[in-house]
């Protein structure tokens, strides 16, 4: 038991040092270009929100037929790049679900207009994460 605790502590220390080190975005999120990632704020005083709420995004999602037939349920995690006008410039899948769910979630988000993120009243580009849940009824 003591070995397992020591191993867990070592693992936590290692993960902590990796997270706090100066890694570029390509190490954390593959396929996200560093230049694009740096052009978007990670947070803002007023974060972007989907016009029509999250329900507006869910209404645009068509549950993929293959996911229905194979019983795929779960969450797709997305990184969304919203420009200063509230338009979606890009969407990256952070955690995949498969069965066409990734594509359905990405398509719905790209078709959605967001309110602009703002700092001190000034619109800016912001990246935000979102989980889209797929659940069969």
Reading the helices and strands in chain order gives HHHHHEEHEEE
Query: What is the CA-based Rg, rounded?
Result: 18 Å
The largest sheet has its strands arranged as: 2-1-5
Strand content: 15-25%
Gross geometry: elongated
Number of domains: 1
Provide the CATH architecture: 2-Layer Sandwich
Describe the structure.
This protein is α+β, with helices and mostly antiparallel strands and 137 residues long. It has one domain (33-134): TolA/TonB C-terminal domain (2-Layer Sandwich). Helix content is 38%, strand content 23%. It is built from 6 helices and 5 strands. Strands 2-1-5 form a 3-stranded antiparallel beta sheet, with helices on one face. It has a two-stranded antiparallel ribbon with strand order 3-4. Helix 4 (53-60) crosses helix 6. The protein is elongated, with a radius of gyration of 18 Å. The chain starts with a helix and ends with a strand. The model is unreliable at 9-30 (pLDDT under 50).
Give keywords.
137 residues, single chain, alpha+beta
Gist of the model:
This protein has helices spanning about 1-20, 25-30, 35-40, 55-60, 65-70, 100-110; strands at about 75-80, 90-95, 115-120, 120-125, 125-135.
Q: Helices and strands in order, then pairings?
A:
Layout: H1 2-20, H2 25-28, H3 34-38, H4 53-60, H5 65-70, E1 74-82, E2 88-95, H6 101-110, E3 117-119, E4 122-124, E5 126-134
Antiparallel strand pairs: 1-2, 1-5, 3-4
Helix pairs in contact: 4-6
């Amino acid at each position: 038991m003591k070995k397992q605790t020591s191993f867990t502590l070592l693992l936590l220390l290692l993960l902590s040092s990796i997270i706090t080190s100066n890694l570029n975005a390509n190490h954390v999120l593959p396929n996200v270009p560093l230049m694009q990632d740096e052009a978007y704020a990670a947070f803002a005083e007023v974060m972007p929100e989907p016009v029509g709420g999250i329900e507006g995004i869910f209404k645009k999602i068509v549950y993929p037929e293959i996911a229905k037939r194979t019983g795929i349920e779960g969450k797709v995690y997305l990184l969304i790049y919203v420009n200063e006008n509230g338009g979606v410039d890009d969407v990256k899948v952070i955690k995949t679900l498969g069965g066409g769910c990734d594509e359905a979630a990405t398509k719905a988000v790209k078709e959605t207009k967001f309110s602009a993120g703002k700092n001190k009243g000034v619109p800016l580009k912001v990246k935000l994460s979102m989980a889209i849940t797929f659940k069969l009824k």
